[in-house]
Amino acid sequence: MKKIAYIKTAKGGRPQGKETPAPAPTEFKLIGKPTPRVDGKLVVTGRAKYTHDVFFKDMLYAKILRSPYASAEIVSLDLSTAQGFPGVKAVLRLKEGRVKYEGEQVAAVAAISEKVAEDALKLIKVEYRTLPHVVTPDKAMAEGAPRVQDSANVEKINEYSRGNIDRGFAEAEVTFERTYKTAIEIHQPVETHASVAKWDEDELTVWDSTQAIFNVRDGLAEALGIPETKVRVIKMYMGGGFGSKLDVNEHTIVAANLAKKTGRPVKITLSRKENSLCVGNRPSSLITIKGGAKKDGKLTALSLKNYTCGGLDRGDECSEPLIDVYECPNVKVEEFTVFTNTGANRATRAPGHVQGTFALEGFMEELAAELNLDPLEFRRKNYTTSNQGGTGIVYSSKGLDKCYDIGAQEIGWTRRNKKPGDGQGKKRRGLGMASQIWWGGGVPGTLADIKIHRDGSVEAISGTQDLGCGTRTFMAIVAAETLGLEPQDITIKIGDTVYPWAPISGGSLTAPSVGPAVRDAALKAADHLRDMATKKLSVPAADIVLADKKLFDKNKPENSITFKDLVKELRREALFHGERGPMPAGFAYNTFGAHFAEVEVDTETGRISVLKHVAVHEIGRVLNRLTAESQVIGGVTQGISTALFEERVIDENTGKMVNPNLQTYKIATSMDMPEIIPMFADLVDPRINNLGNKGLGEPPRIPSSAAVPTPSITPSASI
Amino acid sequence: MEKTPKKKSRTVTRRAFLRGLGGGAAGAALAGRLRGHDAGAGQAEAPLPPAYARKTINFTVNGKDVSVEVEPRETLLEVLRERLKLTGAKKTCDRGECGGCTVLIDGQAMYSCLFPAVRASGRKIITVEGLADGETLHPVQKAFIEKDAYQCGYCMPGFIMSSVALLNQNPNPSAGQIRAGLSGNLCRCGNYVKIYEAVAAASQKIRKA
Questions:
Q1: Is there a single domain that holds both residue B148 and residue B119?
Q2: Residue pair B60/B125 in contact by the 8 Å Cβ criterion
Q3: Rounded distance, CA B196 to CA A670, Å?
Q4: B40 touching A, CB under 8 A?
Q5: What residues of chain A, 588 to 627, have a C-beta less than 8 Å from chain B?
Q6: Secondary structure (DSSP) of A132-164
Q7: For residue A677, what is the domain's CATH number?
């Protein structure tokens, strides 16, 4: 999915609706409490079906031949030997002319087994004429560098200003400038990208490891030139995406074409190497921030210049946190992308915000030291309750101050030395922190159905995805809460484009989109059941409560009928449509958080160990505390992993990735984990939707890699 | 980052495996190229010549005796997943880096992606599908649900099998022993600290039982 489209979606629907959602009740029986996953048994017994686990009797296996060069011209391509190899059923030419990165697809085969397909790839004869390549942003920016695209290697992608930056710096009593650099990171989901394509007459069904079934459906329809009505996409379980599975993939189109050509189902699973090269990465950043402040700590000016590199595609805009988080009247932003002969980037859990927050929060720590202020106090001094650094519209809810209070208390912020650099000895400890902002308001128009059967069973249905964030479970919780049932009573149907539309599972959109849609459908179902029970119980509908699998008179609870007995009276199964309503205009809808890390630095070796990481988030109402805590712990773990270990390494001479595997591309292991404390500033957003909840996908990933290194880059944080 | 070279002593590396075949990787590939292959998914492909050096092996999976004809280059993981349709163990890195394919071989946790299928002959294999007693979950499985020890769940079969092996060998592991015992498994969603909690809880339950 194009980055701009992704950010637009992540920001949510424009909050322009007039209708204010019904105020949410403050007390729930299930919502907000910890509930184990309703589908846990399937996962822990290995019975949950991921795309890799899909098999059909006549199925063929596809493999793709990819360019070994970062830049080359295909002089000739001969598929005939591969085509004649026993067990090969079809071959496809995928590229003519120039290849622009290591891993670009050149040709494909479909064969009776994966091993036959792999062998057949070796029989494809390709003659390349290698061309000059450039794989690092430094070299790509240099004079005379080979051109990656037809246009220049450096391109401006973003600019922003407010107030008067020159006046802002003139007013400052202290100014400070620093440059921050982040490396390219690979998503590395444990389930590599995979698809199975199967035709039935002119209708295509695709099982895909995806975060966005409707994007895959629409993308396939467009690529194959067939109506969307002829494509069905199914995702049952999915082994991680982190933004790399938001759109239709080239290899999925290849599988569909090979399936069409052979008349048999075709499966394609990418190898770990392909996963490292071809399906996205988080762009690097090179961010210079200059700031000015009064001696008392009030910011007067902030400027940001960024050179981001996303390979063949534009990198990330990283300035949003700087534009929004702190009150500052004068701001100037300029961002440039640098093209290289490496795989195109994709959205990576909080694109732009991770890099931008790393730079901004490191800068805030260092400027606080310059000002001789406590970095937390410095942040509080520049607190704002409206966006665009205090110059925009008011936040519908903002619990960042609460996050600061809770987190500072938990980490023991007062232990910090007042004097910078007071720590003694070889190993020294420090405390660092970072603030977080993201969108996460959800998408108005998201659909969900509740279906009640005459035998008392209930379905909650939506064309959404569960990436492991617990979508199935929160849907069950919301439906059960509203209907007076238990989560296990609700059958969840998701991950299929035949179900009602829901947005991508990315950008922290799922819970604040699907949750309210399920709630809306369940409220309609509850109203219908109350009307039915009115006659049975001889009390007004308004007095009827749904709880404990019964409907009863709130003034006389013994006057009741069981849910099961009541729905027997339905003439047929009853379907209730729910929709996530619009958000009132005039407010900004954002999520907030603050992370605090206690870190030990070995001053002789430079080794950094995180000892304790406190993560506090404000996401409105929490739907399921158990899975929300996991989400936060995961975001912290990934942040620590990036901050300390991860980096895509490309050899400048050969243009090849040196570490396209999990042995040399280092991700955090169980040996690297600190104590992690996930916490929530429990608020309920009064108007965002009928549950008062916001998303949590991105937030814990944003400040986690920023909080870790801050104590090591500034001695002021020592304890 | 340091990784404990867990399991290395108990299994073979891919390189050693291929060397052991005599011709190395190139030899295996060439042989395949010349002689053709099994259909994998079980259906007959008439025009194919007989497969290269197939061998029938007999072993036990989850208490059931099985007999499978395999190629020397096939791994136990491939046989479990593609022939026997036991898809609990996952092919995640396919080179012994992540533990997603961990199964118990004669009670030992092993990377099945590095284990030549022919070596499975006569052995007792337990996969995640064989852990529960009917519908009654193993205490480790129960604890993983209760503590919410996973997110996407893809790495979980491997973690669960490593945890079971750890607790079989050491029913009362310290926090450090749990970390070390699971250091051969990677979780990209990053749920390690909840996994520790689950293993500790399961350990308590097992000892009480």
A1: no
A2: yes
A3: 9
A4: yes
A5: 626-627
A6: ----SHHHHHSTTPPPSSSS-SEEEEEEEEES-
A7: 3.30.365.10
Mean of all residue pLDDT scores within chain A: 94
Question: Do B203 and B152 share a structural domain?
Answer: yes
Chain B segment 159-178 residues within 8 A of A by beta carbon are 160, 178
Contact flag A630-B2 (C-beta cutoff 8 Å): no
CATH number, domain containing residue B197: 1.10.150.120
In which domain, by residue range, is A85 found?
A: 51-66+72-131+193-269
Distances (CA, A) of A283 to A4, A617, B69, B198: 14, 26, 47, 35
For residues A432 and A447, membership in a common domain is answered with no
Using DSSP's 3-state secondary structure scheme, residue B143 falls into helix
Span between the terminal Cα atoms of chain B, in Å: 38
Q: How far is CA B209 from the centre of its chain?
A: 27
ipTM: 0.95
Residue of B nearest to A625 (CA): B148
Give how far B207 is from chain A: nearest CA, Å: 21
* Residue B3 domain-assigned (yes or no): no
What total number of domains does chain B contain?
Answer: 2
Q: Are B190 and B157 in contact (CB under 8 A)?
A: no
In a domain, A225, yes or no: yes
**A88 to chain B: closest CA residue:** B36
Other C-beta atoms within 10 Å of A14: how many? Answer: 11
Is there a single domain that holds both residue A502 and residue A471?
Answer: yes
Q: Which amino acid is at A583?
A: M
| Alpha-carbon gap: B135 to the closest alpha carbon of chain A (Å) | 9
Q: Which domain holds residue B95?
A: 8-130
Question: From the list B1, B49, B189, which residue is nearest A634 (CB)?
Answer: B189
Q: What pTM value is reported for the model?
A: 0.93
| End position of a domain, from candidates B73, B100, B130 | B130
Of A41, A469, A661, the CB nearest to B93: A661
Do residues B170 and B146 both lie within one domain?
Answer: yes
- Residue A708 clears pLDDT 90, i.e. is over it: no
Residue B77 and residue B30 share a domain: yes
Chain B hits for A118, CB-CB cut-off 8 Å, are: 29
Query: Do residues B33 and B117 both lie within one domain?
Result: yes
A274-305: pLDDT as tens digits: 999 999 999 999 999 999 999 999 999 999 99
Q: Where are the beta strands (DSSP E) in A330-467?
A: 331-338, 427-438, 447-452, 458-461
Decide if B33 and A119 are in contact by the 8 Å CB cutoff: yes
Q: Which of A33, A39, A45 to mutate to probe the B interface, most B CBs <10 Å? A: A45
Per-residue pLDDT reduced to its tens digit, B53-100: 788 999 999 999 999 999 889 999 999 999 999 999 999 999 999 999
Nearest CB among B33, B129, B156 relative to A43 is that of B156
Q: Are residues A680 and A662 in the same domain?
A: yes
Distance CA B127, CA B156 (A): 12
Q: Do B146 and A36 touch (CB under 8 A)?
A: yes
B2 part of a folded domain: no
What's the confidence (pLDDT) of residue A5?
72
> Residue B29's closest chain A neighbor by CA?
A119
> Considering only residues 103 to 132 of chain B, which have any Cβ-Cβ distance to chain A shorter than 8 Å?
127-129, 131-132
Domain membership flag for residue B180: yes
Minimum-distance CB partner of B100 among A190, A641, A670? A190
Nearest CB to B145 within list A40, A661, A672: A40
> A211 to chain B, minimum CA–CA distance in Å?
12
B1's tokens = 């980052």
In a domain, A180, yes or no: no
- The CATH number covering residue B33 comes to 3.10.20.30
Last residue of a domain, one of A579, A610, A627: A579
Taking CB atoms and an 8 Å cutoff, what residues of chain B touch A56?
Answer: 41
* C-beta atoms surrounding B1 within 10 Å: 12
